Amino acid sequence: MLIDTHAHLYLDQFEDDLEAAIDRAREAGVTRILLPAIDVPSVHRALELCERFDGLYAMAALHPTETKEATSSDFDAVAALCDDPHVVAVGESGLDYYRDRSFDDRQQEFLRLHIRLAMDRKLPIVFHNREAFSDLIRIVEEEWGNSKEMDGRRGVFHCFTGTPEEAARIVQAGFVVGIGGIVTFRNAGLAERVRSIPLDRIVLVTDAPWLAPMPYRGKRNEPAYVRFVAERLALEKEVSLEEVAGVTSRTAREVFGIG
Ligand SMILES: [Zn+2]
Hints:
Elements: E1 2-4, H1 18-27, E2 30-35, H2 40-52, E3 56-60, H3 72-81, E4 87-96, H4 104-121, E5 125-130, H5 133-144, E6 155-157, H6 164-172, E7 176-179, H7 190-193, E8 202-204, H8 226-237, H9 241-256
Parallel strand pairs: 1-2, 2-3, 3-4, 4-5, 5-6, 6-7, 7-8
Bound molecules: zinc ion.
Zinc ion binds at residues 6, 8, 36, 92, 207.
């Protein structure tokens, strides 16, 4: 059993073959798929899919790149959607400094709002990070405090590509690391760096339709391919695929409170 904790199945890239993609996921052993939000309409689309298919779960948040234009009423809509029983997490929130540095302050402001929402609703939170790790972890630690008690904080730093020191800081802060297709890219160096992360602090992500693992690099990604991520982790950790599947699925179920 595998869990893809991060797939944007509601996007147009799945318009033509969504059912087939979900069937392929089942055949690959992927029993649960979590659908992180980008904006308010994406939460509604994710909730429709949760009604249609078993084993799907939604999240609610404004993606950091959306916060340039987002309003406080958009955030209020996200907060209201967190009451839906299909919504299992706040996500994806975070910081993205890759393309546009003109609204860092707005990104940080919305990040703090999302963290407070997760704390208030006792929900886990999924963080997106691109070239912003030091600000992201600092704000997370500021908002949650540095107390040794984990006080219920749960969540994922998804599509992690950082250093072993950064992974250790995520784990220290009470969160888990989401590993995706980049671990299979020969030139990324991530495979070596994941060896130091305890297996039980890792969950699997695809970030479908993006970041397809080898041997599908450059193609559309889909939840079935999370298996290639699990296989690569098994190789690096020198454990069986079954162990990777079992341990990462147990962690995902704990973090997201799903059965
Ligand atoms: Zn994503």
